[in-house]
C-alpha cells in the first residue's frame, strides 16, 4: 500500500510539473500599455491613445456560390501614440470566423483582421458584421462583409 501511494504521489507531481511548465509559453501583454484617459472628474486626454485606422471597413464579395468560403483581410494601421491592443473580434453569426493579432501593435505598425464567411446553407443577400473591441476611443469598430449567395444552377 505504501508503494502504491508513493507511485500515485510521484505521478501527480509529474503531471503538476508538466502542466505548470506551460504557463510561460503564452505571450502576455504588460499592463503598462493600458491607458484609460477618461477620469472621474470629466477631464480627458485622448491625444496619447492608439488610433485604429482601417483602409476600409466594408467589403462586398459580390456573387458567391453556395457552400463556398471566402475571406477578406481588413488592413489597419495604429495611427495613435501608444500601443494598440485588440481585445476581441466578435462575429455576428456562426457562419463568420475572424483572425486578429493577439499582441500589442506599436504606433505606426500595420496589421490585418481577416474575416471568413462560410456560405454553406445560405442563399440570397448576406450582410455580416464583426465588432472589433480595442483600447481606442471609441473602443468599438464594426467591420462588414456582404455577399449575394447563389446556387450553381442559377449560373447556367
Please characterize this protein's 3D structure.
With 156 residues, the protein is mainly β. The chain has a domain at 49-155: Immunoglobulins (Immunoglobulin-like), CATH 2.60.40.10. It has one helix at residues 2-20; strands spanning 52-54, 58-65, 69-78, 86-91, 96-99, 110-118, 124-134, 140-150. It has a four-stranded antiparallel sheet with strand order 1-3-6-5, with no helix packed on it. The protein has a four-stranded mixed sheet with strand order 2-8-7-4, with no helix packed on it. A hairpin with a 5-residue loop joins strand 7 and strand 8. The longest helix has 19 residues, at 2-20. The termini are far apart. Residues 14-26 have low confidence and may be disordered.
Strand order of the largest sheet: 1-3-6-5
Q: Quick check: average pLDDT?
A: 83
Largest sheet: 4 strands, antiparallel
In total, the number of strands is 8
The CATH architecture of the domain at 49-155 = Sandwich
Unreliable residue stretches: 14-26
CATH topology name of the domain at 49-155: Immunoglobulin-like
Please identify the structural class as seen in this structure: mainly beta
Please state the oligomeric state of the protein chains shown. Answer: single chain
Beta strand %: 35-45%
**SSE order, one letter for each helix or strand:** HEEEEEEEE
Provide the gyration radius in Å. 23 Å
